[in-house]
Amino acid sequence: MHPLQCVLQAQRWGPLASVSWLLFRTCRAQSSVHGTTCPGPGRQQENGVQKDFSSRLAAGPTFQHFLRSALDPQEKPDVEDPPPYLTVDELSGRQRKVYLETYGCQMNVNDTEIAWSVLQKSGYLRTRNLQEADVILLVTCSIREKAEQTIWNRLYQLKALKTKRLRSRVPLRIGILGCMAERLKEEILNREKMVDILAGPDAYRDLPRLLAVAESGQQAANVLLSLDETYADVMPVQTSPSATSAFVSIMRGCDNMCSYCIVPFTRGRERSRPVASILEEVRKLSEQGLKEVTLLGQNVNSFRDSSEVQFNNAVSTNLSRGFSTNYKPKQGGLRFAHLLDHVSRVDPEMRIRFTSPHPKDFPDEVLQLIHERDNICKQIHLPAQSGSSRVLEAMRRGYSREAYVELVHHIRESIPGVSLSSDFIAGFCGETEEDHLQTVSLLREVQYNMGFLFAYSMRQKTRAYHRLKDDVPEEVKLRRLEELITVFREEATKANMASVGCTQLVLVEGHSKRSATDLCGRNDGNLKVIFPNVEMEDVSNSGVRVRAQPGDYVLVKITSTSSQTLKGHVLCRTTLKDSSAYC
Ligand code: 5AD
Ligand code: SF4
């Protein structure tokens, strides 16, 4: 079934349809294993368990089970009753050790913590040592073919681990989570028989059940996309207690349907997490002493909390000037400016960033807020993708080069000193040399501080796959990509040179990886700043000399720059509030 089809079904018929489809998937995975493949090592010995399990599965869920699954996620109890075909004991992790490996974007890093939070509650332990793992879960990415190839290669390595496993240990279970599970579905189960479970990005709550089914030697999958899953009540576990910053997921999915992009198919429809639950998480992080929060989502600034009826007024959405959407205009809900306003008030000493936004959703109230609030970083990611209006139209981005450039000027006027970054794709369908030169000229014109540049990789299911031709030869794509990287570096070096002689506020992260005598941190624009680890004055305690620790704010005078890093010497330890007077 096409994922959008299943989204539509869920929309029309609600959770009843969703749950039955989910169970159907498990049964199908089961029948393929029983019908056509030999049980692997360790599976035969489980036949007794399997028989018992199968007879319970045949009895199927009760009506009560469907009713309970229809509950609002907020109302769901922490520990759910087991499905009728599993006992509480079978559902629990029984201290099995889980090894999680993350690929792809920051959203996947956050998803890994959500998956872990679910498993931890269920009685699993986490290990960082692959050799001692009982369960290996790969959180995967599908955005480009190369990302998927990396996962296939990793699966071949893990296969060896599984076959070499001592019979005295519990059988090793391997799972594919996230975008690749969603995109390839049973193709993964069929191609790699040693994969035991598949969980799409909206199915992490189901991991304990999927692993319990896998315990009996069967493959299990849940790749159902949801219209409302935001994991609002699943607080991700902070993995590094010494960390200075954390990511907070505020929305999931994407409705934009850019013609090259697989994301709307793997992560489903756009939905926002309720403001109250985001604020609760940010407060907790502030209490833990974290100094920076990055609001995360595929389209963070399209945020729209419509969870309460009173939020849903008829006010239509202000888009950036000259921008349009591929979808019907939406109305009402609490928007990104509201969220940013409240998040930035939680702790004035906590830096706020957000990624990744879409250029269409930068109304003046958002820009004004970024300008006004000391703790909202003056850094905007503004993915352009191409500098050619013709290519932008083929990409269905909803803007022309001219509208994009006008937005850049407007942002720079509204937020003086703002740092800009962007994403670009080289060699999209039909891109001519002239189009490519337009992208080069946009890089020169805007002079970004940071950039993420990619060669186009055609993805099945996307509009480009169905309607356009991937006609730029691979070597031309790579040559154009190289050219874009060179130009980007030249311009970023020039842009960063402007900071030489300036004093910047830096949030200290720890020791520099390259030198034991240096510390490393990030400036407001999110660029890495390196400076010697020496004693300095503490502005809050005059006369006291201190050494900077991770999580401290320090003022650094910039002395040299490259395209990606700044270097300088430290002046003093300060606070975010006090520092606004210096910069
Ligand atoms: N090929 C190459 N790059 C892509 N991106 C998204 N889809 C593709 C694709 N099919 C890039 C875009 C996006 C970033 C996250 O990845 O630049 O902004
Ligand atoms: Fe993909 Fe476009 Fe959505 Fe970004 S905005 S995730 S590029 S479809």
From TrEMBL:
Cofactor needs: [4Fe-4S] cluster
Gene Ontology molecular function: 4 iron, 4 sulfur cluster binding; metal ion binding; tRNA-2-methylthio-N(6)-dimethylallyladenosine(37) synthase activity
Keywords (A to Z) from UniProt: 4Fe-4S, Iron, Iron-sulfur, Metal-binding, S-adenosyl-L-methionine, Signal
GO cellular component, one term: nucleoplasm
Stretches of the chain forming a coiled coil according to its record: none
Catalytic activity: N(6)-dimethylallyladenosine(37) in tRNA + (sulfur carrier)-SH + AH2 + 2 S-adenosyl-L-methionine = 2-methylsulfanyl-N(6)-dimethylallyladenosine(37) in tRNA + (sulfur carrier)-H + 5'-deoxyadenosine + L-methionine + A + S-adenosyl-L-homocysteine + 2 H(+)
The TRAM domain, residue ranges: 497-572
Domain of life of the organism encoding this protein: Eukaryota
InterPro entries noted in UniProt: Elp3/MiaA/NifB-like_rSAM, Methylthiotransferase, Methylthiotransferase_CS, Methylthiotransferase_N, Methylthiotransferase_N_sf, MiaB_methiolase, rSAM, rSAM_horseshoe
The keyword Metal-binding appears for this protein: yes
Radical SAM core domain span: 240-494
MTTase N-terminal domain location: 96-216
Signal sequence interval, chain numbering: 1-29
An annotated GO BP: mitochondrial tRNA modification
HAMAP family: tRNA_metthiotr_MiaB
Protein family membership: Belongs to the methylthiotransferase family. MiaB subfamily.
Name this polypeptide is given: Mitochondrial tRNA methylthiotransferase CDK5RAP1
